[in-house]
Write a structure and sequence with these properties.
Largest sheet of chain A: 5 strands, antiparallel
Distance between the termini of chain A: 20 Å
Order of helices and strands of chain A: HHEEEHEEH
Structural class of chain A: alpha+beta
Number of strands of chain A: 5
Helix content of chain A: 25-40%
Oligomer: homodimer
Chain lengths: 169, 169
């Protein structure tokens, strides 16, 4: 059990500049009412939980594509998040983007919170390559998803977990 | 001339929680090498400059659509930004989203940094309505742009400037 005072201290420490490394192991208030939207669950493979978000790999081998879902109930817009959650989401989005770029050596990153079809707040972090199936258009609706084979999927998940600091959990 | 020490103090103050109001008038290091990509200039109407970003209105009356461009040279990815710039961009993106929602009473916000066609880092903040020309698909490439008439354009720009705290500048 972390007291409110200690928790506030952790939050204050986390929002100071130069403390990027802390957020992955930071403390986030749990939201027991959160449950992942069934469509997001159906289209993805779980990677792991960061302080705020559940990290998912889109089961589409056409593009390296992560989806980050804040574990908060009933949030649909970025501007609905509490300030500290918003900051965590920014940092976790950036960590996902760096990890994806580092693993895949993609040419461009696409980062987007759309939510027109699935309203539950989720952020897409997609590694794009010149010549991928949708390039230079956005990926949504561009090509039918191609499921990963088990070996590639497992190797990718392992590399993602290592890159996000989730390897030992 | 602001000394480095004073500047750091301003930066430190800006990244504390609960100081959201400060960023609009905050101090940002100028980047004299910045120039707006000609394609972004051609497709938009300038709204004004926040601490970090140039705010543009896409000249497409199909959707209320802002584009925020950090005034930094040679930056293409969110993760290329310095920590303080990244934080400013998050806050200015949220301010743009709140302003757009407040003015247009849109049903959903779409926020995205893609940059596949124009590499200069820019963030789209788009107000979506159920039944708009692309709904529920993303807007890019969905319908030919429809230029604003002068009266609607000028009224919208005025409301945006007021919402973003740029009215008196």
């Amino acid at each position: 059990m972390v007291s409110i005072t200690a928790w506030q201290g952790l939050v204050d420490a986390r929002v100071k500049p130069g403390h990027d490394a802390e957020f992955l192991t930071g403390f986030a208030m749990p939201d027991t009412a959160f449950s992942l939207h069934p469509q997001l669950a159906a289209d993805t493979i779980p990677v792991g939980d960061l302080a705020l978000t559940r990290v998912l790999l889109a089961n589409d081998a056409n593009y390296p594509w992560l989806i980050l879902v804040p574990r908060r109930a009933s949030v649909t817009e970025l501007i609905d998040l509490a300030d500290n959650d918003r900051l965590d989401l920014m940092r976790e989005t950036d960590a996902a983007a760096r990890t994806l770029k580092s693993i895949t050596a993609c040419d461009k990153l696409n980062v987007a919170a759309l939510g027109n079809v699935v309203a539950q707040l989720h952020v897409h972090v997609i590694g794009r390559r010149h010549g991928d199936k949708a390039w230079p258009k956005p990926v949504w609706g561009a090509a039918p998803p191609t499921a990963y084979g088990p070996a590639v999927r497992d190797g990718f998940i392992k590399a993602l977990r290592r890159g996000l600091g989730l390897a030992g959990t």
